[in-house]
Amino acid sequence: MSLMKYFALISLSAIGIFCGACASPRPASGTIATEITRDVAEGTWALTDSENGLFNVNLLNDGVAISNWCKGADGAKGEHGTWKIDEGVLVMNWTDGWLDVIQLGHIGFEKYSYAPRVNRQGPPTSFGQAVKVLNYSAQWAGVWKTRSADPAYNNQSFYICLQSNGAAMKSIDAINTGCWQKQQDGIAIYFSDGWYMMLVRDGENVQATSWAPGVARTAAPTGTCPIAQVLE
Q1: Domain of 72?
Q2: How much of the chain, in percent, has pLDDT values that exceed 70?
Q3: Is there a domain that residue 129 lies in?
Q4: Residue 1 domain-assigned?
Q5: For position 157, what pLDDT does the model report?
């Protein structure tokens, strides 16, 4: 074999391998690794949206899916949907028309998202990695509902999104973003408008203690109220 033919054969082989890897953004189910089971699917996942922003999905054992994606019309109330395992692939259908698919692929868990009315047999609207959240943040990442300690809101109910990367958002107040971090007895939430909250778990119950902007955290709290994770 001449040297020129040898290099031509190598080039064609490399092109074939490259094209084979890039021919479809979604590998066929079951051809890459073990199929996803319900036990693997249940729990908390970290995903990214089409703008590469992180959000979490809580998959409950009754097929209910709760997302703390807060860029939609419902804001910090998150998104609701259902999930199932279809031939080893995790499929999530959301009430706003989006479809998310998670399966095992070349880079571990892979997520494919389809916008409403997009052909589900065609290319996805976006895709990326999916990560199962297994550390302490899995206990807190999600959507929570409580009542405001601010007298101006007259005990009004509101929602808080807590994301596994430490970001927080609430459904009241003009300045509604913040961050949260682990504390000895629970977590602390620092909102950008100056409100401070401590969430402490006592068995099945969680208590939210709030301090208004400007109130010393060593002083008496502005209010205390039960807070519950949204699970339906």
Answers
A1: 28-134
A2: 86
A3: yes
A4: no
A5: 97
